[in-house]
Write a structure and sequence with these properties.
This protein is an alpha/beta fold and about 240 residues long. The chain is about 35% helix and about 25% strand. A hairpin with a 4-residue loop joins strand 6 and strand 7. The radius of gyration is 17 Å and the shape is globular. The two termini are about 30 Å apart.
Length: about 240
C-alpha cells in the first residue's frame, strides 16, 4: 500500500499541480491532505476546487478555519511582514463562494487510517507547533488523549520532519507552497513543493520525502495580475529552490 500525504498549499495552484503530477507518477493508493489549503496566494478558489475533486480525506488547518471566521483586524505581535500576510489572507477569504466555504466546512479536525493519525498543528490544536524540539512530555500528553498510533503526521510548520520516538514516529511532509529558508537574514520562499510517500513494506511504513520544482516566473506573473493586495511584495518573496 502506498499513501501520499501533503498540505500547506496556501492558494498556490502551480505548486499544487506540480505536487499532484509527481504523486500521480508514483501511483499512490490513496492521498491525505493535511490542511491549510487556503490563505496566502493568488488561487484561493482554484486550490479548494482541485483538492475537493481529489475526493481524499482533508484535515482542517488553522488557515482553513480562519477563512470561515468573520474578518478580524490585525493583532500586532511584532512578527515580520504580518500586515501583508494578514491583508492577503483577508483578501483570499473574501474571494470564496458559498460552495467553496462548504468545502472548507467539510474538512475534519483529524484523519485516521489504520495505525496513522493525521492532523494539522497537533491533534489537540490546529495551530500548535510539533517539531524536533517539542518536549517528549508534551508528546506523551497528547498521545494519552488522542491515541497510540505508531505514526503521527502533521503539517503547519512547513518544515519536513522525521522524528523517531519510543515505539512511534512523528512526521511532517513539509509544505506544498511555503517551503521557506533564511537567507541573508531574511526568510524567502523556495519554488518547490514538498510532500511525502508512505509505503507499507514488510510490516512497517517506509518514508520517502519528495521535493518537486515548479515554474517560478509563471507564479510571479500570476501573483502580479491577481488583484491581491501587496502583490509585488509577495512575488518578491519567492526565489529559485
Amino acid at each position: 500500500m502506498r499513501l501520499a500525504l501533503f498540505g500547506d498549499i496556501h492558494d498556490n495552484l502551480p505548486a499544487l499541480e506540480a505536487a499532484l503530477a509527481d504523486m500521480e507518477a508514483h501511483s499512490p493508493d490513496a492521498r491525505i491532505c493535511l490542511g491549510d489549503v487556503t490563505a496566502g496566494g493568488a488561487w484561493p478558489r482554484e486550490c479548494l476546487q482541485v483538492v475537493a475533486a481529489l475526493g481524499c480525506p482533508v484535515v482542517r488547518g488553522n488557515a482553513d478555519r480562519e477563512a470561515l471566521e468573520a474578518p478580524q483586524p490585525l493583532k500586532v505581535r511584532g512578527l515580520p511582514d504580518e500586515q501583508e500576510i494578514h491583508d492577503i489572507g483577508q483578501w483570499g477569504a473574501a474571494q470564496l463562494t458559498g460552495a467553496e466555504r462548504d468545502i472548507l466546512r467539510s474538512f475534519a479536525p483529524t484523519v485516521t487510517l489504520d495505525d496513522l493519525l493525521c492532523f494539522h498543528g497537533s491533534p489537540a490544536k490546529d495551530d500548535e507547533v510539533l517539531n524536533a524540539g517539542t518536549p517528549p512530555e508534551r508528546l506523551e500528553e497528547l498521545r494519552a488523549s488522542h491515541g497510540q498510533h505508531t505514526v503521527w503526521i502533521g503539517g503547519h510548520t512547513h518544515q519536513p520532519l522525521l522524528r523517531i520516538l519510543d515505539g512511534w514516529r512523528l512526521l511532517n511532509p513539509g509544505s506544498v507552497n511555503l517551503s521557506f529558508q533564511k537567507r541573508g537574514g531574511k526568510y524567502v520562499n523556495l519554488a518547490y513543493a514538498e510532500y511525502l510517500l508512505l509505503d507499507w513494506t514488510d510490516g512497517d511504513w517506509t518514508v520517502t520525502f519528495r521535493r518537486v520544482p515548479y515554474d517560478l516566473a509563471a507564479l510571479k506573473q500570476c501573483i502580479l495580475v491577481s488583484g491581491m493586495p501587496h502583490a509585488q511584495w509577495l512575488a518578491d518573496e519567492w526565489v529559485p529552490g
